[in-house]
Structures are given as structure tokens and as C-alpha cells.
Amino acid sequence: SSSSSSSSQLKESDLSEIELEVGEEHNDTKEITDAKEAYRIIEESSVVLGLHPDQATEPIVDFALSRKKPFAIIPCCVYHKEFPKRRFPDGKPIKSYDDFVQ
Fold this sequence. Notes:
The chain is α+β, with helices and mostly antiparallel strands.
């Protein structure tokens, strides 16, 4: 379960700096640099994946849940100092990778 807040919601404006690669075939990719096109692709996706998404982990989860899309995350760094409000239900801070993936 993620701690959802309005500041962690993915918005179209957040995509202006994101570069997406969409595979046409196994070795053919297309770089998407237009934010509206990127947003359309993400909205139309059937699943949302986050591979080593750094600080985008929770916004990816929030996005997928808000649109009832299946998702999978392979997180990397916990960034516990950047997210001090990220805690277990009992109030214990999430500081390690093992904590984060629970």
C-alpha cells in the first residue's frame, strides 16, 4: 500500500522531462519526447511497469491504482531521507529495501 498524497499524483505536466521508449518490435524503439503523446501512451497502457524508478515509485503506484491498471514495480533506492513520512502503519519509518518492498 502506498501513502497517497496530491503531491505524488502523476500529472501530464510531470511528463515533460520523461523520455519513453516504446518497442515496435523486439529491437526497434521509438523515443517519445512530446509530453501529450507520452501521457496518451501511458493512459492507454494495459499495465504499468516501474523498473528502477527512483523517486517515481509511489507516483507510478498511485497512477496505476487510480486507473485500475495492473502494475509491477522493481524499486531501487529507498530515499528514506527524502520521504520521511513514508512509514509502516505502526509509525516505524521505512529505511531499508526490505522495508520498502513489504
